[in-house]
Design brief:
The structure is a homodimer. Chain A has about 230 residues and is α+β, with helices and mostly antiparallel strands. Chain A has helices at about 25-40, 50-55, 115-120, 165-175, 190-200, 215-225; strands at about 10-20, 70-80, 100-105, 125-140, 145-155, 180-190, 205, 210-215. Chain A is globular. The termini of chain A are far apart. The interface between A and B is large, with 82 and 82 residues. Strand 8 of chain A pairs antiparallel with strand 6 (about 180-190) of chain B. Chains A, B: InterPro entries: Acyl_CoA_acyltransferase, Diverse_Substrate_AcTransf, GNAT_dom.
């Protein structure tokens, strides 16, 4: 068990972190569904492409603050052509210059041809490998905004290659550039690999004393009309 | 121990939930400090009035989405004059019509004259009694926004009169009006009175399996520059 994965001969590919656009919705939807399966939460799953599109990329001007001031998605995608100056639309977003890095890709299990075609469909050779969805939160005690990371996902065959770190550290970098005080997220308690990684590799604190409370469905409706 | 507080003769006052304005900053600051004392978290407290003002009421147009699309504060205040048509600025906010309700106020312990003057300073007879700070969050599984309640606070002498419920149910009402799927918040695990209230009186679910992770200070800086 002393062999090192990083010593294996991999394929050099270009990894890119960029802002998602509305044309990424089918890939984002597919990844969210895969994530729900992994987290054993498919019974709570009611996402649709149309809802994702209207809530993440609203068209009413009032409802669409610039990226980083509301719900924001970074995509990490891979290109086997190692072409750094691909001038597709995603590189032209005025709010964020894509971050590029060469990685030595050692593909894991589960790489399926149909899946790969789906994830690189009409993307100039870029194959979507993962995403992170985050948005501003606020700490009154710091009187500062932070970022809350709602979801971080890397497709199964691309895990353990540093792509999750590339996504999360880009969020952290943006947070520090914006003068924010924190980056926060939640982890489900049985995912001990993730918890170890966050604490030992990232230096994050896990706060065991706080519990999430959620008001939803009928209870939300009833409470909303309590004062009527 | 069988006497009922609600049977005591109280004073009829008018309670109002309204959007906060920048002129509420001194009162909001004072309440946040009182909250930090109650939660035994004053060592994490680094709020200032100036930071609160610039982050909750930013002046750059790009950075100030309308209320409910970013950090939003509702104030609950009380008026002993029972005048419903007070035409102060706070009633003229185009984004939210204040909610008014008569309450039978039975003041608790801790009412101090100096405090009261501070909390009603220059507010046409309205005395600030509490606040709630909330902002949109997002559930990918629902593909819908919700509200996350960062802080809910009612001044000690005004507790157990329904003012916290008035604040939270106004947030819930706004969430349902905006087609949101959830209202969420966190509770510290030793605050069993609060947990009982949320579960039994509100019908909220407490999710014991999720833990909050936080990256802050030096660890945030280090991680932000990991890919440099």
């Amino acid at each position: 068990m002393s062999s090192s994965v990083s010593a294996s001969a991999g394929t050099k590919v270009l990894a890119r972190v960029r802002l998602a656009t509305v044309s990424d919705i089918p890939q984002i939807y597919r990844m969210i569904h895969q994530m729900a399966e992994f987290e054993r939460l498919t019974d709570h799953f009611s996402a649709t492409e149309s809802l994702l599109s209207s809530t993440l990329f609203p068209t009413a001007p009032n409802h669409s603050p610039p990226p980083f001031y509301s719900f924001t998605v970074f995509i990490v995608d891979l290109n086997r052509n190692l072409v750094r100056d691909v001038s597709d639309d995603t590189n032209l977003n005025p709010h964020f210059t894509p971050m590029l890095r060469e990685v030595d890709l050692v593909e894991g299990e589960g790489s399926v041809e149909g899946e790969r075609l789906f994830f690189e469909k009409e993307k100039n050779g870029w194959e979507v490998a993962g995403f992170v969805l985050f948005f501003p939160n606020y700490s009154t005690f710091l009187s500062k905004p932070g970022f809350y990371v709602e979801d971080l996902f890397v497709r199964k065959e691309f895990r353990r290659q540093g792509l999750g770190t590339m996504l999360l550290s880009t969020v952290a970098k943006k947070a520090t550039e914006m003068g924010m005080g924190r980056v926060e997220w939640c982890v489900i308690d049985w995912n001990v690999n993730a918890i170890d990684f966050y604490q030992e590799k990232m230096g994050a604190k896990v706060l065991p004393e706080w519990k999430i409370c959620r008001l939803t469905d009928d209870a939300l409706q009833a409470y909303a009309h309590k004062e009527d």
